Each structure stands twice: as structure tokens, then as C-alpha cells.
């Protein structure tokens, strides 16, 4: 894998000798000193050019940075004056290229508020036409977890507990695939993840970004909470998934109450208790039951 010094040098040597390339801006994690980085961290380069047509017509230029394993999309397509090329090289270097014209740099310089991907951090690597000087500096706060409104909080509470009933019904029916969709997708990523983010916001005074889809939860969560979260992950056994549903509910309940108390929001304890009664009734039903008794 290429280290930053080598990667930047290779890119700039190519760009400085190519009249089509006018501006290069680095974005995402490698442009944010607060981000957690390792050797697998992508390089996110935005190339601003005179004319997009050469980059629509050929991808040969991508080979200047190594032997390609994969590129996405397979064929370059212009989308609102942008071309995207996501490339993985044999040496493990992963580069996401976004290509536009220098007009996009002018628009960025005239923005009263930076787009989130720039506010999260950017570095100008090349500016042949001196167009980037008026781009506002990043605040590095674009993806910091924000406090929920009371309406947002209540909506997540309502949706989480309501959807646990779907999981219980499907567990009784032995519908593993749908159980996994609801429990490990909808409930985990739409509701539990949101509450964990809020919980971390409370713990860190709303000053951290745990990254997308909980990537950095293990780094930020206290050990007991992380271990509690680990126990919500199970395999294909139906009984194990019943237990995972309850462990997920217990964790969600505890964290939601802490968040609600901190923000002065009312937690729907009566609703939780009624849903828990329903879950228990479903779990205790005979597999061949015809009535909900």
C-alpha cells in the first residue's frame, strides 16, 4: 500500500505535467486530523479539469497509479458534471476519484456554507489557477452527532418497540430470513444505532463523530456497554435470536432512558412494558397455536 508521501508525490507528478488537471483537493478521513486512519484508509481525491470528455472517453490514466483489481463504475458516466471512479489497486491502495471541471471550484469558493464533505475536512494539493483561496476553512463539525429533537427521540422510541413485535411474530413462524432483516438491519441500524450515537453524544458532550454505521463504536463505548452490544449478535438458531431480541431491547431501553433523562425528554415506559408483555406472550405460544391465548 502506498503511504501518503508516495501517493501524493505520484499524483502530483502526473497532474503537474497534465494541462487538463487544474486543481486537486483531498477530502474525507485523510484530510481530517481528528479522524482515525490506518493503512486501509481510502484516498479521496477530487480532480478539477478543463474538460471532462477525455475522462469519459478513457480510463487509461487510472493505470498510472498501479495495477487495477477493480474499478466502479466499470464505465465512466457523467452525473451532473461529475465523474466517479472508485479504484482498488493490487498493492491494496484504494482511491476514490471524483472528477469535475474548474467551474465547480468557483462554485465552492462562492458557497456561504461549505458542503458537509468539505466541512468535515479538506486539503488543497494542487491549484494551478489560484481558485481555492476563497474556499472557507473547514470546521470539522459536519458529521458530529447532533442532539435529537424531542419529536425525533419519540419517533425512534415508537418505531423501535413497534418493530420488535414484527420480530417476535416471525420468530414464532420460524421465518429466520425476515427475522434477520428486521432485527439485524432495520432495528439495529435505524433505531439502536441512532440511540447509541445519542448516548455517545451525551457522554462526549456532543463533540464526536462515531462514523457511519457504528464503525467507531468500539473505540468510544465503555467496555460494559460494548460487551452488552456484542451479545446482540447471534447466528441462525431461533432460540438464540429470541435472546438477541431481548438483549437488544434491554440495551435500547437503558441507553434511551439515559439520553431522555439528559435531554429532558419523556421515555415511554408504559409503552415498553406493554410491548414486552406482548413479546412474552408470543414467545410462550405453542408452535401450533391457532389463537392468541
TrEMBL record:
GO terms for molecular function: nucleotidyltransferase activity. SUPFAM superfamilies: Nucleotidyltransferase, PAP/OAS1 substrate-binding domain. The keyword Kinase does not apply. Keywords: Nucleotidyltransferase, Transferase. Pfam families: Adenyl_transf. It comes from the Bacteria. InterPro entries: Aminoglycoside_adenylylTfrase (IPR007530), NT_sf (IPR043519). This is Aminoglycoside adenylyltransferase. It comes from Salipaludibacillus neizhouensis.
Amino acid at each position: 500500500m502506498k503511504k501518503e508521501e508516495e501517493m501524493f508525490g505520484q499524483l502530483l507528478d502526473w497532474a503537474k505535467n497534465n494541462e487538463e488537471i487544474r486543481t486537486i483537493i483531498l477530502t474525507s478521513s485523510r484530510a481530517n486530523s481528528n479522524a482515525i486512519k490506518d493503512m486501509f484508509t481510502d484516498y479521496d481525491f477530487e480532480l478539477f479539469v478543463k474538460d471532462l470528455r477525455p475522462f469519459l472517453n478513457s480510463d487509461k490514466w487510472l493505470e498510472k497509479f498501479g495495477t487495477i483489481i477493480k474499478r466502479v463504475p466499470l464505465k465512466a458516466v457523467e452525473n451532473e458534471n461529475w465523474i466517479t471512479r472508485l479504484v482498488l489497486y493490487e498493492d491494496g491502495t484504494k482511491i476514490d476519484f471524483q472528477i469535475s471541471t474548474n467551474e465547480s471550484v468557483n462554485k465552492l469558493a462562492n458557497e456561504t456554507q461549505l458542503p458537509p464533505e468539505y466541512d468535515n475536512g479538506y486539503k488543497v494539493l494542487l491549484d494551478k489557477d489560484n481558485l481555492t483561496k476563497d474556499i472557507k476553512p473547514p470546521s470539522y463539525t459536519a458529521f458530529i452527532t447532533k442532539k435529537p429533537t424531542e419529536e425525533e427521540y419519540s419517533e425512534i422510541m415508537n418505531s423501535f418497540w413497534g418493530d420488535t413485535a414484527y420480530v417476535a411474530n416471525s420468530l414464532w413462524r420460524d421465518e429466520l430470513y425476515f427475522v434477520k432483516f428486521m432485527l439485524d438491519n432495520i432495528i439495529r441500524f435505524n433505531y439502536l444505532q441512532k440511540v447509541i450515537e445519542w448516548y455517545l453524544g451525551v457522554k462526549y458532550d456532543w463533540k464526536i463523530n462515531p462514523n457511519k454505521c457504528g464503525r467507531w463504536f468500539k473505540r468510544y463505548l465503555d467496555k460494559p456497554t460494548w460487551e452488552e452490544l456484542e451479545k446482540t449478535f447471534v447466528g441462525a438458531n431461533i432460540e438464540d435470536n429470541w435472546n438477541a431480541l431481548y438483549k437488544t431491547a434491554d440495551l435500547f431501553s437503558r441507553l434511551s432512558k439515559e439520553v431522555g433523562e439528559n435531554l429532558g425528554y419523556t421515555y415511554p415506559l408504559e409503552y415498553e412494558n406493554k410491548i414486552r408483555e406482548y413479546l412474552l406472550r408470543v414467545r410462550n405460544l405453542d408452535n401450533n397455536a391457532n389463537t392468541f391465548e
